[in-house]
Amino acid sequence: MRVVSGIKPTGNLHLGNYLGAVKQWVAMQDEIQAAGGETMYFLADLHGLTEWIAPAELSANTIEMTATLVAAGIDPERSILFNQTRVPAHSELAWLLNNVARVGWLNRMTQFKDKAGKNREGASVGLYDYPVLMAADVLLYNATHVPVGEDQKQHLELARDIAAKFNLDYETDLFTQPDPLISAAAPRIMSLRDASAKMSKSNPSEQSVVKLIDSDETIADKFRKAKTDPDPLPDSWAALEGRAEARNLVIVFAALADRTPDDVVAEFAGKGFGQFKPALADLAVATLAPIRDEMVRLLADRSAIDAILANGAAKARDLAAPTLAAAQRTMGLLA
Ligand code: TYM
């Protein structure tokens, strides 16, 4: 078993990334390694280029996000932690796979449609082609499992299609079909201001996104001011149907506490959000503050963080080389 997953260093890690992906990454270090497998996590800095970002911001974010991952429990001694740029095989395999992926497949990617919006002609080619690089990221290591939030599921289905078509066209079994592992607890954390939009770095309001770098006061304030409705919590999870903001907050509570939504609703049944939100704020601060404090401590030595990435990349390059060479041979590029 080999677990591979990535995150774009285009901002600070937020609660959606943490609950939807990173918490699973940490848990998998133990599970997969106990089963003799391997965990590989990377900063998808090449994906970070698909929408304009100032160079200084991208490089600072890469270091800061690495520190946040380590603070959240990714152990560079046990997991291979690196940034994409330092492993050129990602880009090289992406070019090979560009010739396997079909334009029609990429045209169906909803994230491109959302991000490009009405300005399709003005979107970068990278933004359009991004899912092929993402396929290369996982196929390069023959990943068996890819822990991601629900928004990445379509991209992984594309990676499976690309693997299948490559194997079929070239009559080989070179690539493994990766299975997406979508967090059951937090597949899609929504904005705290608008429960129809996922929590994301690009949300228009700062209040809607809890960042792992936020101060205790800011975290608490964002939860206290989160949008809700005037009704009290019912006595069952099912009875929250149709109350999207309320459901989102219960999911966040449950995911932070490692409890089920049913269990959380039962505890607060009959109580209003005036009681629920401060309890959620306290829980969030208690969970996130130690990660933030550790991140700040780690960032005092940026060169140590850079060394973690350089070390991880050396290991990743060794694992990537045989697959890339096999793909090149298979396609007639190498004798
Ligand atoms: P990115 O950087 O947008 O997000 C990183 C991870 O966080 C998850 N996530 C969420 N989960 C639940 N609720 C949310 N509101 C939420 N927002 C983000 C994402 O699903 C993701 O798992 N394309 C990827 C990065 C990537 C990658 C890969 C992932 C590049 N190559 C290969 C896996 C395998 C991305 O943009 O994630």
Provide structural commentary.
With 335 residues, the protein is mainly α. It has 2 domains: 2-187 and 301-330, Rossmann fold (3-Layer(aba) Sandwich); 206-297, Tyrosyl-Transfer RNA Synthetase (Orthogonal Bundle). Helix content is 54%, strand content 7%. It has 13 helices and 5 strands. It has helices at residues 15-34, 45-48, 55-71, 89-98, 103-107, 110-116, 125-139, 153-169, 216-224, 244-257, 261-268, 273-299, 302-330, and strands at residues 2-7, 38-43, 80-83, 145-148, 179-182. The strands form 2 sheets. Strands 1-2-3 form a 3-stranded parallel sheet. Strands 4-5 form a two-stranded parallel sheet. Helix 4 (89-98) packs across helix 7, helix 4 packs parallel to helix 13 (302-330) and helix 7 crosses helix 8. The longest helix is centred in the C-terminal third of the chain and has 29 residues, at 302-330. The chain is globular and about 70 Å long. The structure holds tryptophanyl-5'AMP. Tryptophanyl-5'AMP binds at residues 5-8, 16-17, 20-21, 44, 47, 134, 137-138, 146, 148-149, 151-152, 186, 188-189, 198-200.
